Amino acid sequence: MGDSLLSVENLHVSFSTENGVAEVLDGVNLSIQTGEIVGLVGESGCGKTTLARSILGVLPKNSAKISDGSIIFDNQNLLDMKDQDIARDIRGRLITFIPQDPFSSFNPVFTIGDQIMDLMKWKYSNHESPWFALRARKKERENNFQRVLELLQTVQLPDPEGILRKYPHEVSGGQRQRIMIAMALLPEPRLIIADEPTTALDVTIQAQILKLLKRLARERNVSVIFTTHDLGAAYEICDRVTVMYAGQEAESASVEKFFDKPRHPYTKSLLESLPNKSGGLEGIPGQIPALINPPSGCRFHPRCLFASKDCITSRPHVSWPSDDHMVRCYHPKVYD
Amino acid sequence: MKARKTNGSNTILEISKLSKWFPITNAWNRKIGDLKAIDEVSLAVNKGEIIGVVGESGCGKSTLGKTIMGIHKPSSGSVNFEGEEVAGLGPSQSRQLRKRLQYTYQDPGSSLDPRWKIGRSLDEPLKIHTDLSKEERFVRVREILNAVNLPETHLQLYPHEISGGQQRRVGLARILTLHPSLVILDEPTSGLDVSVQATILKFFLDLKEKFDLTYMFISHDLSVVRMMCDRIAVMYLGKIVELGPTEVVFNSPRHPYTRSLLSAIPQIGGERVTDHFWLEGEPPDPSRLPLGCSFRPRCPFQNQDCAVAVPPLVNRSGDRWDACIHSEKSLM
Amino acid sequence: MFESAKFIISKLAKDRTSLVGACLIAGLLLIALFAPLLAPYPQDVSEFHPPERLLGPSMLHFFGTDRMGSDIFSRMLFGARITIAIAVIAIGVSVLIGVPIGLIAGYNKNWISDGLMRVSDIFLAVPQIILAIAIAQTLGPSIENVILALSATYWPFWARLVYAETRSALTETYVEASIALGASPFRVMVFHVLPNISSSIIVRTTIGMGGTILTAAALGFLGLGPPAPSPEWGRTIAESREFLPEAWWYATAPGVAIFLVVMGFNLFGDGLRDILDPRTRRSHDG
Question: What is the CATH number of domain C68-276?
Answer without folding.
Answer: 1.10.3720.10
